[in-house]
Amino acid sequence: MSVPDSVDVLIVGGGPSGLSAALCLSRACYKTAIFDSGNYRNEQAHHMHMFPTWDHKDPDAYRLAARKELEERYPHYVNFVNLAVTAVGRNDEGKPGIGGFYAVDAEGGTWQGRKLLLASGVTDILPEIPGYKECWITGIFHCPFCHGYEDRGADSVGVLAIDLMAAMPPITDGIVRNVLQFTKRVVVYTNGATEVEEKLKPLLAKKTEVEFDNRAIEGLRKEPVGAAVTIQFKDKSEATHGFLMHSPKMEMNLAYVKGLELQKSPMGMELQVSQPWQETTEPGCFAVGDTGTMGKIIVAGVAYGTFAAMGIVKQLQAD
Question: Distance (Å, rounded) from C-alpha 254 to C-alpha 258?
Answer without folding.
Answer: 9
